[in-house]
Automatic annotation (TrEMBL):
The keyword Kinase does not apply. It is found in: Cytoplasm. It comes from the Bacteria. Residues 17-269 form the DAHP synthetase I/KDSA domain. This is 2-dehydro-3-deoxyphosphooctonate aldolase. Its EC number is 2.5.1.55. PANTHER family: PHOSPHO-2-DEHYDRO-3-DEOXYHEPTONATE ALDOLASE. Belongs to the KdsA family. Transmembrane segments: none annotated. Keywords: Cytoplasm, Lipopolysaccharide biosynthesis, Transferase.
Length: 283
């Protein structure tokens, strides 16, 4: 079995190592690039908190949410303008950046800027997209589809490993549980780690109610904290969170985003859980 460790390059020339025995990875930012000012605000706050808590931090935001429920939903600034914002944040704030791609043709341009390429859950079986991401040479944050079992992600990993072995992080973001509802199966973390990949918990999309608001997705953000604590106890290598200064006014995924001024308390809780587990392992 492959060693489940992935290296993420940093703008300063060093790298984060993600996997067992390494600091917890935090991928956090707004769902979509609403404005450069908001992106910088969230990034700066998360960068400062992560530095104090000893977390490996990657800023995330989407330049285009191509899978919104309704046609008139806000999608973001688009590929060119969005990547320009991500580039400035990366260079001026000194933080690695991540965004999602939806088509193979986007990958070469995105890979010039992004430190991590993300594959959305809906597209986790798209062979051409997976192989284009693998050919970029960048680490890949691959979300498990809501309709895919954790063990069947072996096939998606295999498509990438053909060109980019050792670059995949697998993300749990809930599984379909009837209509407009998701449930998190904590067994998925050890199952997917056994595929030789670090595992990441998408704490905010896991409480999403897909299409639950009729014209948009709903969410139950009150369950972010308990599910995150449970996932850390189950053993994860990274945490993915959509963070916003005012989730009720967010242009995308507000109902399942965590407030910027609430996140540090939760991060301190989960790090205490992680330290407790490490102490038990050493005893």
């Amino acid at each position: 079995m492959k060693t489940p460790v992935v290296s993420i390059a940093r703008p300063d020339g060093r790298a984060y190592l993600v996997g067992p025995g390494h600091p917890l990875l935090l991928i956090a930012g707004p769902c979509v690039l609403e404005s450069e000012e908001l992106a910088r605000r969230v990034c700066g706050t998360m960068q400062e908190i992560s530095g104090r808590l000893g977390l490996s931090y990657v800023f995330k935001a989407s330049f285009d949410k191509a899978n919104r429920t309704a046609l008139d939903s806000f999608r973001g600034p688009g590929l060119d303008d969005g990547l320009a914002i991500m580039s400035r944040i990366r260079e001026e704030m000194g933080v690695p950046v991540l965004s999602d791609v939806h088509e193979s043709i986007q990958v070469p341009q995105a890979a010039q800027i992004l430190d991590v390429i993300q594959i959305p859950a809906f597209l986790c079986r798209q062979t051409d997209l997976l192989q284009a991401a693998a050919a970029s040479g960048k680490p890949i944050n691959l979300k498990k589809g809501q309709f895919v079992s954790p063990w069947d992600m072996a096939h998606a990993v295999g498509k990438i490993d053909r060109l980019g072995a050792g670059r995949v992080m697998l993300v749990e973001r809930g599984s379909c549980f009837g209509y407009n509802n998701l449930v998190v199966d904590m067994r998925s973390f050890p199952v997917m780690r056994d595929l030789g990949c670090p595992v990441v918990f998408d704490a905010t999309h896991s409480v999403q109610l897909p299409g639950g608001a009729g014209h948009a997705s709903g969410g139950q953000r009150q369950f972010i904290a308990p599910l995150t604590r449970a996932a850390v106890a189950a053993g994860i290598d990274g945490l993915f969170m959509e963070v916003h200064p005012d989730p009720d006014r967010a242009l995308c995924d507000g109902p399942n985003s965590i407030a910027l001024d609430e996140i540090e308390t939760l991060l301190r809780q989960i790090l205490a859980i992680r330290r407790s587990l490490e102490s038990c392992a050493d005893a």
